[in-house]
Amino acid sequence: MTLAIGIGASLAVFFVAQRWEHETLRIDYEVASNDKMLAVKRTLQDHVAVLDMLGRFCEVTKRVDRGEFKQFIRHPLSRDLDIVMMAWLPRVTSAQRELFETATQTVGPAGFKIVERDARGKAVEAGHRAEYLPVLFAEPFDRNKTMLGADFNPKSEVEVLN
User: Fold this and answer.
1) pLDDT digits over 79-129, tens only?
2) 135, 88 contact by CB (below 8 A)
3) Is 74 a member of any domain?
4) Among 25, 28, 73, 131, which residue carries the largest CB count within 10 Å?
5) Which of 130, 133, 129 is nearest to 160 (CA)?
């Protein structure tokens, strides 16, 4: 009888301890998850604030040059290492394309063209479509200069395939 009570008490203590440990692990996991979630949320809010600030800059500035763009985004890039690139992508219609490329070549890189990636991933002159969203300025420039002219129009891939 004493043996049965001892085994029963041991089992009861084991199950209580196991449940307590499981609950402790669950609470620790929830706390760690919430901390991570809040950190991600704060980072996203910071990034949205930077984009909002850039949007307001676009609204009030009639014409942006490379120097103004670089100066304006210098602070967000220096304080937020998660941001890999900030770029200026003007909307360019098909009718404006030739004039846009010519004007950009006079103040920017010689031979500037609106480009897209071909099936092998090589940059080629973008095909004809209604509008383009080419990278005109990209900062930090040294890391992103190969992005100049890249068309980020979400329709570009679909239209090229059709």
Assistant:
1) 878 888 888 889 999 999 999 999 999 887 888 999 998 888 888 999 999
2) yes
3) no
4) 73
5) 129
